[in-house]
Structures are given as structure tokens and as C-alpha cells.
Write a structure and sequence with these properties.
Blueprint: E1 3-9, H1 13-25, H2 30-33, E2 43-45, H3 49-58, E3 72-81, E4 91-97, H4 99-106, H5 110-113, E5 118-119, H6 122-134, E6 140-159, H7 162-186, E7 189-201, E8 208-227, H8 234-241, E9 251-253
Helix pairs in contact: 1-7, 4-6
Length: about 260
């Protein structure tokens, strides 16, 4: 008997918004709009821009010179909690692991699996593949634990030029509005977007201008536990449904599940 665990989720919150903004902002030709002050794709990373700017300032030479990252955009996961009002659909169900499902994961490099909503190492993938192969035509069962997370992502925009900050705020607001359709198609629910402009910082000896967005949404997570000792659905039926004769619904991974 062996048990293997992996996790699936709809989106990786931080990487999703970094990639979506990066993929859509270049079309605005920021270098032209800002007369070369800002590149077509500004610095976009998973750290607050001011934290990076302070870090660079600490490395300043004797004359106080340092390399600024501004204008920059930062994406951070601020809050990650259970949403007690969104529990319908959470629970456990049996699933079937298929070769198609494993082939789809194998085609994704281990470096990119997290971005694609999968936390599975190559060794766990190999173990599950071996377990499926050993079944020799029999089904490989698993138990899917599904739950929801209510998440808040903060997107910060900072520069030392107020007009550039305002322009970036308007552009990023439009891009985030466009992301709602994409997120909805992925199954992310209850997306709410709020923006705040006219932020200021004076701690680096000059005026910095900022703007921020707060995005709230519900993400879906699945922890899947593969058990190669299960040979019949009824062996996990009583655990899932509580009654030995009851037949719960199940999902076949790799066939729309």
C-alpha cells in the first residue's frame, strides 16, 4: 500500500496577475506615451515596489547614487482565508487517475507546474505513473478534498513622476477589468476590484507617487490523495458518503475532470 498526494488550484494568485499584466501592457506602447521615461513593459514583480526601492537605496554609493527600479508594479498576496459564506461544493469525492491526466502533467515542466495550478514533483508523478501501470487495466482511485479560499491580492504602482503613475493606474485598471472574463472562464468567482490613487511617499528624499488596487476573489483548491491499495469504488464509498451501499458521484481526471 502506498499513498501519494498532490494539489491542484485554479490560479496561482501572484503569478497569474504578473503574467496577465505583462502580456497585455506592451500593446499600450508606454515608451512612446512617456517619451522614453518608462519601458513598454515596466518592472513587474512579486514584491512591493517601495520595498525594492528601499533595498536598492541601502546599496547606494558614497554619493548616495543607486539604481532605481521605478516606475514599477508589484503584485502581492495579502490575505488568504476560508470564506465561511462560500462552503457549498466543498467536501470529498472519489476520483479516477487516468493516463491522459498524467500525460498532461508530464508535458508541463516542473518549473511551470505551479503557474499552471499543479503542485506535483517529478518523483511523485513517477510514483503515480508506476502505480497506474501496475494496475494493468484496473482503475487507480484517489480521494479529492475540495475547498475554497477567499483571497486578497494587492497591486501597487509607484514612480517619481505623477503623470506616469496616473497613466499606469488607468492602464492597469483597464487590464484588470479585462482579466475578469478570463478569471471567470477559469472558474474563479466573486472577483471584486477596488482602486486607490493619489498615494505619496517622501522617505527617499524625493516625492514618490503611488496607486494601488485591491482584488478580492474566491479561488478553488483540491488536495488529491492517491491510494494504490483501493481496487473498488465501494472501498472508499463508506468514507465519502457514510453508507456502504450508497454510490457517490466521482470524477475521471483527464476526461474533463
Amino acid at each position: 500500500m502506498a499513498i501519494y498526494n498532490f494539489t491542484q488550484f485554479l490560479i496561482d494568485e501572484v503569478n497569474y496577475f504578473i503574467d496577465f499584466i505583462s502580456d497585455n501592457i506592451a500593446e499600450y506602447k508606454l515608451s512612446e506615451l512617456t517619451n522614453g521615461y518608462c519601458g513598454d513593459i515596466p518592472s513587474i514583480q512579486d514584491t512591493h515596489p517601495l520595498a525594492m526601492e528601499y533595498g536598492n537605496a541601502l546599496l547606494a554609493d558614497d554619493d548616495g547614487n543607486y539604481t532605481s527600479i521605478l516606475p514599477a508594479i508589484g503584485v502581492e498576496l495579502i490575505d488568504d482565508s476560508r470564506n465561511p459564506q462560500q462552503l457549498m461544493g466543498a467536501g470529498r469525492k472519489p476520483v479516477i487517475i487516468t493516463q491522459t491526466f498524467l500525460d498532461e502533467i508530464t508535458a508541463i515542466s516542473i518549473q511551470n507546474r505551479f503557474k499552471n495550478g499543479i503542485i506535483m514533483s517529478d518523483s511523485v508523478l513517477a510514483d503515480i505513473q508506476a502505480a497506474l501501470t501496475a494496475k494493468a487495466g484496473e482503475k487507480l482511485y484517489a480521494i479529492e478534498y475540495k475547498y475554497f479560499r477567499f483571497q486578497n491580492v494587492n497591486i501597487s504602482i509607484w514612480s517619481d513622476n505623477i503623470e506616469v503613475t496616473r497613466m499606469l493606474y488607468s492602464i492597469v485598471r483597464s487590464i484588470l477589468g479585462r482579466s475578469k472574463l478570463d478569471l471567470s472562464a477559469k472558474g474563479v468567482k466573486n472577483l471584486d476590484l477596488k482602486g486607490q490613487n493619489a498615494l505619496y511617499n517622501y522617505e527617499l528624499g524625493k516625492t514618490l507617487f503611488g496607486a494601488e488596487f485591491s482584488l478580492n476573489f474566491m479561488n478553488t483548491y483540491k488536495n488529491i490523495q492517491v491510494d494504490d491499495s483501493i481496487t473498488e469504488l465501494k472501498q472508499i464509498n463508506h468514507f465519502i458518503a457514510g453508507e456502504a451501499n450508497e454510490k457517490p458521484t466521482f470524477v475521471v481526471l483527464g476526461e474533463g475532470g
